Write a sequence for this structure.
C-alpha cells in the first residue's frame, strides 16, 4: 500500500479543493481496496507520512480530512500523541478543533 502514497495525497487534495471530508471506507474504495483493519492501519501510516511531508513544505495537514462514517471525526490514532487537541475526542471541542483544521486545508487548497 506504500505505493499508494501519491494517490492518497491526490485524493486528499481533491477533497480539500472540494471542501469535503472522506471516510476511511471511501478512501480505501477509491484506492481499490475493501475496508479491513489491516488496510485501514496501512492507510493511517500513509496519512502520517503525507502530513509529515506537508508540514515540511508549510502546508496544512490533510489527514484530518479522513474521518469515521459514524461521527465524521478522525479515528483514535489521529488524536493520540498530539498536544494540540482537546482531551475529549468526541465532544463539541473536538468537533470545533477538527472543523478549524479542515477549514484551513479547504482554504489552502481551494486556490491552488
Amino acid at each position: 500500500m506504500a505505493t499508494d502514497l501519491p494517490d492518497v495525497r491526490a485524493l486528499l487534495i481533491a477533497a480539500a479543493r472540494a471542501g469535503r471530508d472522506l471516510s476511511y471506507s471511501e478512501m480505501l474504495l477509491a484506492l481499490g481496496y475493501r475496508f479491513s483493519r489491516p488496510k485501514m492501519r496501512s492507510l493511517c501510516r500513509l496519512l502520517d507520512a503525507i502530513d509529515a511531508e506537508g508540514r515540511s513544505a508549510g502546508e496544512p495537514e490533510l489527514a484530518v480530512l479522513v474521518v469515521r462514517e459514524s461521527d465524521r471525526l478522525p479515528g483514535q490514532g489521529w488524536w493520540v500523541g498530539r498536544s494540540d487537541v482537546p482531551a475529549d475526542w468526541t465532544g463539541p471541542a473536538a468537533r470545533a478543533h477538527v472543523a478549524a483544521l479542515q477549514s484551513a486545508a479547504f482554504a489552502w487548497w481551494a486556490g491552488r
